């Protein structure tokens, strides 16, 4: 049912027989959460920056600054944050030396519009095309798609950033590429250490440059002094490969994958002048790449407990990050995610006034008989108030501490001081009943 929509919305030739993209996934394409920022000059209510856009922006700035420090300005640093999510499976897998039988290629693991066209499973899918266009220093920010379970830490759509940089080698310093030793295919998980095609000097130079730039990115995201460690890893498209972890709030957390790009990828795809230059002298350059997940970083950094929250359009979520300024990464420390009710935002003020006296418990019984167990007294300021309404606190989902017909002020127990003024018993977020 989605196939015709893919054609009309994205110009994608979907094949109804093989397309496994569901309407729910279709709706998520192009939401562009990583780009949701207030239009220039219009900050304030209704114009919050999405937490994924905040993290993207900080990474972009940190990398740009690090590159400006380390290069002679010869390399143009290019940012691609809006590339179409539909790619050829070759670009997503083969160009990156992913093995022919790798499970991620299957229709059960990835979303395909047809056998020729899929939703990218990682931002690395753009490496080969950008190298072909002659780019040698770039950052990609992209929504990526993987068929997966749905729980607090998995979602079939998430966001990644990919950084890639090529360096001119200096043969005088022993930095060389031996093209006869280029890998023909995937090396397998025990292919660690330097690539045979790169001299030790070349590999070390690229790795040192990678470490400097990845460190700069993580220093932009985490408080000064946050420990960082590099753990050996395996990706088919890099060697050596690393997973980088940060020690944050008492735990080592894996935040990023990276490595020295397989020389075969550069050799096959890099066209220094762009287009189809016949014999690209790629034996004179080597490079690195990193990839990171924006959701994971935002969850760790802001204490967001559930990946599904990123899709919320609820101001109770979006406005929580208003104190962050990507130009001042220290402002991230001001924000700690505060849970809110999982029920939709809806204001219902109830105010009433009675000349004769009404006992609290009479009121609670009315509330209970109308609202049932969904109604909660909400957090109350006064202990006295808590004791008074404690018995009226219906069993309610613990995830909704602020929900209740009795507002946060504990109004129900506060008697009107003057009989002339109405007792305000609610300034409340009530249940949808
Ligand atoms: N694409 C990898 C992933 O999605 C991350 C990565 C990118 C690793 C670039 C190394 C180099 O897990």
Sequence-ordered SSE layout with sheet pairings:
Layout: H1 3-10, H2 23-28, H3 51-70, E1 78-80, E2 86-87, H4 89-92, E3 112-114, E4 117-119, H5 127-132, E5 137-145, E6 157-168, H6 200-221, E7 228-235, E8 238-248, E9 251-261, H7 263-269, E10 285-293, H8 294-302, H9 315-318, E11 347-348, E12 351-352, H10 360-371, H11 383-390, E13 423-424, E14 428-429
Parallel strand pairs: 1-5
Antiparallel strand pairs: 2-4, 3-4, 5-6, 6-10, 7-8, 8-9, 9-10, 11-14, 12-13
Helix pairs in contact: 3-6, 3-8
This protein binds phenylalanine.
Region (Disordered): 183-203, 388-433
Keywords: Aminoacyl-tRNA synthetase, ATP-binding, Ligase, Nucleotide-binding, Protein biosynthesis
EC number: 6.1.1.20
Describe this structure in words.
- The protein is α+β, with helices and mostly antiparallel strands and 433 residues long.
- The protein is 24% helix and 18% strand.
- It contains 11 helices and 14 strands.
- It has helices at residues 3-10, 23-28, 51-70, 89-92, 127-132, 200-221, 263-269, 294-302, 315-318, 360-371, 383-390, and strands spanning 78-80, 86-87, 112-114, 117-119, 137-145, 157-168, 228-235, 238-248, 251-261, 285-293, 347-348, 351-352, 423-424, 428-429.
- The chain has a 7-stranded mixed β-sheet with strand order 1-5-6-10-9-8-7. A 3-stranded antiparallel β-sheet has the order 2-4-3.
- β7 and β8 (238-248) form a beta hairpin.
- Bound molecules: phenylalanine (PHE).
- Residues 142-339 form the Aminoacyl-transfer RNA synthetases class-II family profile domain.
- It is an enzyme of class 6 (ligase).
């Amino acid at each position: 049912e989605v196939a015709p929509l893919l054609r009309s919305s994205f110009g994608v030739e979907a094949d109804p027989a093989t397309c496994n993209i569901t309407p729910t996934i279709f709706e998520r394409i192009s939401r562009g959460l990583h780009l949701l920022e207030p239009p220039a000059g219009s900050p304030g209510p209704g114009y919050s920056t999405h937490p994924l856009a905040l993290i993207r922006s900080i990474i972009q700035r940190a990398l740009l600054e690090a590159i400006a420090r380390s290069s002679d300005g010869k390399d143009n640093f290019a940012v691609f944050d809006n590339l179409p999510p539909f790619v050829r499976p070759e670009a997503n897998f083969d160009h990156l030396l992913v093995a022919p039988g790798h499970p991620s290629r299957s229709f059960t693991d990835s979303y395909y519009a047809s056998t020729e066209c899929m939703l990218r499973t990682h931002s690395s899918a753009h490496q080969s095309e950008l190298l072909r266009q002659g780019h040698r220093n770039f950052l990609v920010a992209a929504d990526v798609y993987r068929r997966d379970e749905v729980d607090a830490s998995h979602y079939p759509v998430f966001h990644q950033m990919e950084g890639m940089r090529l360096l001119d080698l200096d043969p005088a310093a022993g930095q060389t590429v031996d093209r006869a030793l280029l890998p023909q295919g995937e090396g397998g998980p025990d292919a660690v250490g330097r690539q045979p095609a790169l001299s030790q000097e070349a590999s070390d130079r690229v790795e040192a440059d990678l470490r400097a730039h990845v460190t700069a990115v993580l220093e932009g995201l985490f408080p000064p002094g946050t420990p960082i460690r590099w753990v050996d890893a395996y990706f088919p498209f890099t060697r050596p490969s690393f997973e980088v972890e940060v020690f944050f709030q008492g735990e080592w957390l894996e935040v990023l994958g990276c490595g020295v790009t397989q020389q075969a990828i550069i050799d096959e795809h890099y066209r220094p002048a762009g287009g189809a230059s016949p014999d690209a002298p790629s034996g004179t350059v080597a490079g690195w790449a990193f990839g990171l997940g924006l959701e994971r970083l935002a969850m760790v950094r802001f204490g967001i407990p559930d990946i599904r929250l990123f899709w919320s359009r609820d101001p109770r979520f979006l406005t929580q990050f208003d104190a962050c300024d990507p130009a001042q990464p220290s402002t991230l420390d001001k924000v700690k995610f505060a849970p809110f009710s999982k029920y939709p935002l809806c204001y219902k003020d109830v105010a009433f006034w009675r000349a004769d006296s009404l006992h609290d418990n009479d009121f609670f019984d009315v509330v209970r008989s109308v609202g049932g167990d969904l109604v909660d007294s909400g957090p109350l300021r006064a202990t006295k108030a808590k004791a008074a309404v404690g018995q009226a606190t219906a069993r309610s989902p613990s995830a909704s501490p602020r929900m209740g017909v009795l507002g946060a002020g504990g109004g129900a127990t506060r008697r009107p001081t003057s009989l002339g003024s109405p007792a305000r018993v609610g300034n409340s977020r009530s249940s949808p009943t």
